[in-house]
C-alpha cells in the first residue's frame, strides 16, 4: 500500500509539473521573454519536477525534454544536441573508458590500496588524502570533468577498502572531499580548468598582463586556504561521526557491507569474509564472541518458532566457523600478514600490497594513463586537444588488450553519458532562446547597487552567480556574459576587473540540480551514483558554497592591501 501511495504521489507531481509547464507556455506571462524562451523555461521546470520525483529514469526524462525543446519551443536540433558534437562529450567517453580499464586491469584497486597505505586508516586522514590528491592534480589536467570521472571510482574503491557503507555518511564524506579537492584549486590556477582560460580572455589586455599564472595564484591564495581548511573540518563534523566502518546495520550488496547473519556467509568477530568488519575496528577480537552471541540472540528472537530451530542449528556451526576464522586471522596478524577485506583491527594500521607485482595488463594500463595525463597536462605546448588524446588512449586500451568489446559495452555507463550530453546542451538551448541576455539585463541594476561596498560587491556577485546558474547552465557562457557587463562597471567604480571575475568564478559551480555542473555529473555517474546519494550531496553543495563566500570575505582586506579594491 505504501508503494502504491508513493507511485500515485509521483504521478501526481509529474502531472502537476507538466500542467505548470503547459500553463506557462500558453499564457506567456513573463515580460521581456519571447514565446520560445518561455516555452524553454516551462519545459525545463517540468523536467526538473520529473527528475526530483523519479517518475521516469533520468535519461528518459532528458530525452523527453530535448524532444519538446525541438517540437514545442522550436529550438534547433543542432543546439539541443550540441554537446554530442562537442569535444566535451567525447572527452567524457574516453575518461569513462579509462576508468573501466583501470578497474578491469586491477590498477584502480592497487592505487586505492597504495593511497590507504600512505595515509593512516582514519577517516580524517583519508579525507585529507582526497583533498590533497585533487589539489595536486588540479593544475595538470585542464578538464574538471575528466578529473572527476577518473578520481570518483578511486575514491569509491578507497571507501570499499576501508569498509565504508556505500551511500553511507563516510562514503559520502569521501566523495565530497574528492569533489572539493578537484574543484577548489580551479579558480586559483588558470591551467586547472578550461573555464580559467575563458575568464582570462574576458579581461582587458592590461589586466591580463598584470595577472600571469603566478600572480593569479598569489592573489587567490587566501581564498584557496580558507575554503580547503573549512571544508576539511566541515566534512569531518558532518560525515565523520555516527557511523563506524563495517557496522552491522549496513546493507549487503557493496564491498564492505554486512546486514545480518542470515545474509552473511561467515562472521568472524571483527569482519565478515569478503566484507567489512561487523564490529568496531578498535574493538579488537576480544568482544567478537559477545558480539556474535548478541547477534545470534537477536536473530533467534525475531524469527518464527520453526525458523528459530533452524537458525539455532545453523548458528551453532556458524559460531564454530567464526572461532576458527578468528584463530586463523590472529595467526595471520601475528605473522605480519594483512587481513582480508573491510577494516583492520587498528584504524592506524597500514595496508600491505596484497596484489603482488604488477601484472602485464596493469603495466600496460599504467603506461597508457601516465602518457595520457602527461599529454593532457602539456596541451598548451603541443596543442593536441584533450579529446584527441583521450580517444587515442581508448584505442590503445583495445590494441593492447587491456579491455575488450564486452567490457566496453558493460563497463561504460551509456545511459549516464546520454543524460550528460542532453543536460550540458542546455547552455546552447538557452543561448538560442535568448534567455542568457534576458537574465543579465534583468539583474544588471542589482550589480550596480552593490558597487558602493567592497564586501557587498564581491559577496553579492557570488550570491547572484549561485542564483543565475540555475538558468545560465554553461559556466563559460555565464562568465562571458557577466564580464561583458562588469568590466565597464569595474572601471567606473575603480575596482580591478579580476576581482569581479574571480568572485563569480569562485561561486560558479553548483550541483543543487545535476544539470548545473559537468564535473559533478562526470564524478557522480563515473560510479553510477553508488557512492553517495544526490540528495545528500546537494545539501553539501550549500555548505561548500557558503565556505566559498567566507573565503571571498576573508580575501577582501588582502585584495585591498594589494590595491585591487
Number of separate strands:
0
Q: What about the largest sheet?
A: none
Name the assembly state. single chain
Class computed from helices, strands and strand pairing: mainly alpha
Percent helix, as a range, is 55-70%
Total helical elements: 26
Principal-axis shape equals globular
Please write the string of helix (H) and strand (E) elements. Answer: HHHHHHHHHHHHHHHHHHHHHHHHHH
* Low-pLDDT sequence parts: 245-353
What number is the mean pLDDT?
75
Round the Cα radius of gyration to an integer and report it.
26 Å
Termini distance? Answer: 62 Å
Content of β-strand = under 5%
Structure overview:
This protein is an all-alpha fold. 69% of the residues lie in helices and 0% in strands. The protein has 26 helices and no strands. Helix 15 (360-377) packs antiparallel against helix 17 and helix 22 crosses helix 24 (497-507). It is globular and about 65 Å long. The model is unreliable at 245-353 (pLDDT under 50).
